[in-house]
Design brief:
Layout: H1 2-11, E1 18-20, H2 30-40, E2 48-50, E3 56-57, H3 58-64, E4 72-75, E5 80-81, E6 95-98, H4 107-116, E7 123-126, H5 134-141, E8 149-151, H6 159-169, E9 177-179, H7 190-199, E10 205-207, H8 217-225, E11 232-234, E12 255-257
Parallel strand pairs: 1-2, 2-4, 3-5, 4-6, 6-7, 7-8, 8-9, 9-10, 10-11, 11-12
């Protein structure tokens, strides 16, 4: 701990833009937290902060609000302890990457954390959130219509949950990237999916890799015969080789990543 603190004191006069402190402080004593936050408060120019694998509590999260230029906060932790609703909103935060919040976390902790995320958020990335009630997450998402990139990879979305999700995000007119990979979606959701794409013609990138989709025919028909902005589609191992060639003479600007059959 003290070696890291000494190093931070040495570099704190630099114009640090990105600070990666992942998995360095999984468990800290109160006096160590106070020292660390005092040092970090001098890093005024931080744009990108990787706090993954470390302790996260109300005090630490509140101090992140002091980074007025902070744009990206990455969290991957099972050390999340928010003892009360946090009223501090990270008003300058534009990108949140909440990856692998483990299923043993208290539901209230996650609700408290989501309550801190500002409506101005542009990129939201959350994964492995099986224990969190999806209805609560949809309520949170409903107020974030300006999101440009939404990643909901590996959070257990099935056909029914996907339908509910579509009803929320079909008005996200600024969203250009949608990642639904590693979920439980089947081809029976394609009517809802295609209806969503019709309402969001600005989407440029889609990832539906590693779902339970066996037949992509209706999706390919849309990709190669309809007017849209989609440039990149990721399907990976869910696509069968023989379903592709019939579309080779259509739009060449659509790049399909299907590297494992």
């Amino acid at each position: 701990f003290w070696d890291i603190i000494t190093f931070l004191q040495i570099i704190n006069k630099s114009k640090i833009i990105a600070l990666q402190l992942n998995s360095i402080f999984p468990q800290l004593k109160k006096n160590e937290i106070d020292i660390l936050l005092q040092i970090l408060s001098e890093f005024h120019n931080i744009r990108i902060l990787d706090w993954s694998g470390n302790l996260m509590n109300t005090t630490i999260l509140s101090n992140f609000a002091n980074f007025k230029y902070l744009e990206s906060l990455t969290l991957t932790t099972d050390f999340l302890y928010l003892s009360a609703p946090v009223n501090v909103v990270l008003t300058h935060l534009k990108h949140v990457h909440i990856v692998n919040i483990l299923s043993n976390l208290n539901e209230l902790n996650l609700l408290y954390f989501l309550d801190c995320i500002p409506n101005s958020i542009l990129i939201f990335d959350i994964k492995s959130l099986y224990s969190f009630p999806f209805s609560n997450f949809l309520n949170f998402l409903f107020t974030k219509k300006q999101i440009r990139s939404l990643s909901l990879s590996g959070i257990g979305i099935d056909n029914n949950l996907f339908l509910n999700l579509c009803q929320i995000i079909d008005s996200f007119q600024q969203m250009e990237r949608l990642d639904l990979s590693y979920n439980e979606i089947t081809e029976y959701s394609y009517p809802s999916f295609l209806s969503l794409l019709e309402k969001l013609p600005q989407i440029k990138e889609i990832d539906i890799s590693e779902n339970k989709i066996q037949d992509h025919g209706s999706f390919f028909d849309y990709l190669f015969t309809k007017k849209h902005s989609i440039a990149n589609v990721r399907l990976y191992s869910t696509v069968k080789h023989e379903t592709i060639p019939k579309y080779n003479n259509y739009k060449k600007n659509v790049e399909i990543f299907k590297n494992i059959w």
